[in-house]
Amino acid sequence: DAGITQSPRHKVTETGTPVTLRCHQTENHRYMYWYRQDPGHGLRLIHYSYGVKDTDKGEVSDGYSVSRSKTEDFLLTLESATSSQTSVYFCAISNSYEQYFGPGTRLTVT
Amino acid sequence: GIQVEQSPPDLILQEGANSTLRCNFSDSVNNLQWFHQNPWGQLINLFYIPSGTKQNGRLSATTVATERYSLLYISSSQTTDSGVYFCAVGADRGSTLGRLYFGRGTQLTVWP
After folding, report:
1. Could you give the CA distance from residue A74 to residue A51 in angstroms, rounded to a whole number?
2. What are B20-45's pLDDT values in tens digits?
3. Which among A42, A56, A101 has CB closest to B96?
4. Which of A30, A63, A102, B90 would bridge with B31, disulfide CB 3.0–4.6 Å?
5. What is the torsional sign of CA B13, B19, B24, B29?
6. Which chain B positions have a beta carbon within 8 Å of A27's beta carbon?
């Protein structure tokens, strides 16, 4: 299995608070991705990175920002969490086309 | 983005039965993956198969890229096969390499 960890694994936060999720990889893969999974929607891409400091938006990027200051870490920030951001968040990595996923973070915004 | 449709949405089988899951997509792709999400939520890579046929044990997959569909076959199903099966496709090149669009999945339940 690809070496991908996500932290925290579970988080409950209040509406309006900032939240940062971390994805860490030990595979030295160039590409990293953040997805969210909601019932009835499969997984949807939030943001992705194609190198250190190189990021771009996915299909559901509103309300999220990302940063990648080193190859192994990709951070997802919710500047002001809303209830609609309650979801399971998955990080993925890739060096070519095939993607490998982390264990996920379950975020609940109350 | 690319539209991905999976069928059936739900499938209930008795242990030992065979099944076929289908994935249709709306555009030419250069990336297609099948995943199994187990009951604990983990996404497990099954196949990377933008075209052709592959087999891994009781599972096999076929993608006919020119007709924009892929099939996942599960033979002699076991209770551990239960979970959600996702098809994901991509058509990006260059710096956006590897972006995936997911279907809504097929929920498979295998009972003893």
Report:
1. 10
2. 999 999 999 989 999 999 999 999 99
3. A56
4. B90
5. positive
6. none
Which residue of A48, A97, A106, A107 to mutate against B (max B Cβ within 10 Å)? A97
The domain spans of chain A are 4-109
Six token digits for residue A37 = 């999974």
The whole-angstrom separation of Cα B37 and Cα B77 is: 16
Spell out which residues of chain B touch residue A92, defining contact as CB-CB under 8 Å: 100
Quick one: pLDDT band at residue A95, thresholds 50, 70, 90? confident
CA angle B35–A34–B70, rounded 5-degree value: 25
Chain B nearest C-alpha distance from A79 (Å): 24
**Each residue of A67-86: b (16+ CB within 10 Å) or e?**
ebeeebebbbebeebeeebb
A93: closest chain B residue by CA? B98
pLDDT band at A42 (very low <50, low <70, confident <90, very high): confident
Residue type, B74: I
pLDDT tens-place string over residues B54-66: 999 999 999 999 9
Look up the CATH number of domain A4-109.
Answer: 2.60.40.10
